[in-house]
């Protein structure tokens, strides 16, 4: 199964996304959507699970989502402060016991394993900000493996 990972669109739908996400079966958006137009366009590609970011106020989304695909459990939350083990999100990690935590907010790609849980950040897909490279990611779930490919926008 192929998943599209995206975060921090900040109301911008990059025209390269349909081609990049071609063939994905589901898209996970890790917050800072900033406008439902982005979700509607992503839904034309594949079903979407999205969470609120610190710039979102849409009552149809929640701050935290737990989903499972191909036996791999995901926990999606916008802000995951990896250096702060007492942050509230880690209570959810203990409760849900995900294989992968997907997050955004930092605008930087990230892939690490902490205490047996993989933490992924696809970067940010909004308009160019700061001096950071924009990106999304593709994740392929197969036979217990989940290689990730970060794609520059």
Please provide a brief summary of the model:
This protein is an alpha/beta fold.
How would you characterize the overall build of this protein?
The chain has one domain (2-152): Purple Acid Phosphatase, chain A, domain 2, CATH 3.60.21.10. 13% of the residues lie in helices and 33% in strands. The chain contains 3 helices and 10 strands. The mean pLDDT is 94.
Keywords:
single chain, 153 residues, alpha/beta, Purple Acid Phosphatase, chain A, domain 2, five-stranded mixed sheet
Write down the CATH class.
Answer: Alpha Beta
- Proper CATH architecture: 4-Layer Sandwich
Provide the spatial order of strands within the biggest beta sheet.
3-2-1-9-10
SSE ordering: EHEHEEEHEEEEE
CATH fold label: Purple Acid Phosphatase, chain A, domain 2
Uncertain stretches:
none
Cα Rg: 14 Å
CATH superfamily: Metallo-dependent phosphatases
Fold blueprint:
Blueprint: E1 2-6, H1 17-20, E2 26-29, H2 36-43, E3 48-50, E4 64-69, E5 72-77, H3 89-96, E6 100-102, E7 109-114, E8 117-122, E9 135-140, E10 148-152
Parallel strand pairs: 1-2, 2-3, 5-6, 6-8
Antiparallel strand pairs: 1-9, 4-5, 7-8, 9-10
